[in-house]
Amino acid sequence: MNRFVNSSIGRLRLLAILEGLSLLLLVFVSVPLKYIFGIPQLSSVLGPIHGILFLLFVFITISVGVEYNWKFKQTTWKVLIACIIPFGTFYIDRKILSKI
User: Based on CB atoms within 10 Å of each CB, which residue in 20, 25, 45, 80 is the most buried?
Assistant: First the structure.
């Protein structure tokens, strides 16, 4: 855990994991509970949490991109796109962020 909080890349990696997990929980657990079983409580809690994590991920990605002088077309846009694709943040963490 300490390796994640010591650098801006580490914090972005941690945020990517949290954002990815929240998206998976939202899409594969809370949405089916809401629309198939009529249980909306988890969506009403998890939706705003995911929204905050999503916005933080976008903001921190841009911030880290500026700090590390990422070329937008080569790196930054790939990291940003990853947060809207299920499993995308996990892929980006392994392929890009863990190597920086």
Answer: 20
